[in-house]
Design a protein that fits this description.
alpha+beta; Heat Shock Protein 90; 2 domains; 11 helices; 5 strands; about 10% strand; rod-shaped
Length: about 375
Amino acid sequence: MAISQSIQSNPGGLRLARDEVLNRLERIVMLVVIGGVIALDTFTYISSSSFANPIAFLTSSAATASFALFLWRPWVASASLAVLFALSFATSTQFNVIVAAAIAAGLVMRLGRTALIASYAGFFLVATAIIAYTDGGATVNVGIYLVIATVSGAIGFALRVASARGHRLEQQLVIQAEQEKEAVLAERRWIAGELHDSIAHHLTVVALHVQMLDDPTISKDSQEAIRSAAKKAMADLRFVIELADDGPRASAVQTGDLAEAIDEARSEIESAGHAVVSSGDPSDERLPRVAEIVLARIVRESATNILKHAGHGAVHIDLDVDDEAAALSIRSPLPATPRRDLPSSGTGLNRMAERVIGASGAFSAQAVDGDWQVSAKLPIT
């Protein structure tokens, strides 16, 4: 991530304020080339008619082997070349070492930071100046060394740019994969939440009235309530599937009508034996659509909880809308003992709180004077 941020913060150029490392392919190629050059030098030395100047052979081989140090420590590799250059005058191999140093300029540009690049450039210019001073006829050779170093450095810089672009692309792919993963998880959570808010409510109604089928006085009404809940569950399930597929197509499905949600809750709660007292106008024109959708879901989820847990007594649904905010309060009596063994997901309160807070509102659910009170307040503006 740091690499990506560093590059993205300066898209017009490449920063040289940090060290780089070779990738696996570059390491393998470099080691093969170094090994091949050393093997060729060794074969040439052994096959010569006389083993003349073994120190020169060792110095030249050491210069080649020092390239391997760039795989781990570019500073150490550069210092090794400087030391070998100083020693090369004693063995008359300074021309071999300066060629190696010119080629190594590409590795310095590929791997080093600004300090190393500047130091190496200074060392190389001083080295070529020394050779030109000590050998008056080496002016042409010095020019060749500078050309080799320039070309090698340009290749190293090009490889560095390509590597940086590769790192940036890798980081972008990682970020994109994480975003896609989060999008999939968010969609799954959304589908699960929609199913909870709709299907779980209807299943609660079904489970409630199944327990009432044994009472002949209300069994017919319970059967009708079960049929109605099943029909609504199928409609809501179809709506969720359409949303998850390609957006809603069944325009007749209402997902956020507050007046309808209150009427439906009243009918279901009264069928469970509770009186319902409501106040406020759910069709108030000052109520924005977002607030209406959220409050309709609060009413539905609260009705589910009331069917599961409420004790004997009246249920109060109060809606207060003014120019500043819309406040909904739903109060139901707390049970002395658990009424029924009805299914429960345990996520209803969290879902309600998430919806209200997500709409910049305030939410609370708590026991107040023997009642369970759910309160939601949403801003109008």
